[in-house]
Amino acid sequence: MSSPMKDFLDQFFELCKKYQEEIKPEIMAEILRDYADRLEG
């Protein structure tokens, strides 16, 4: 049985894998921090 959280994480990590050759991990992390800041703000 899968959960929405597991499904989300699976899809998220697949997306990261898809773009990791084009976007550096540091930039991905920065984007995620910016997104988290927007959610909190």
Task: Give an overview in words.
With 41 residues, the protein is an all-alpha fold. The protein has two helices and no strands. The longest helix is centred in the N-terminal third of the chain and has 16 residues, at 4-19. The protein has helices at 4-19, 25-40.
Low-confidence stretches: none
How would a crystallographer describe the biggest sheet?
Answer: none
Output the radius of gyration: 12 Å
Global mean pLDDT: 93
The oligomerization state is single chain
User: What is the number of beta strands?
Assistant: 0
Share of β-strand residues: under 5%
Tell me the distance between the termini.
Answer: 34 Å
Alpha-beta content class = mainly alpha
Give the helix level as a range of percent. Answer: over 70%
Order of helices and strands: HH
Which shape, going by the Cα principal axes? flat
What's the number of helices? 2
Set down the secondary structure blueprint:
Layout: H1 4-19, H2 25-40
For the structure shown, list the relevant keywords.
41 residues; mainly alpha; 78% helix; 0% strand
Quick gist of this model?
With 41 residues, the chain is mainly α.
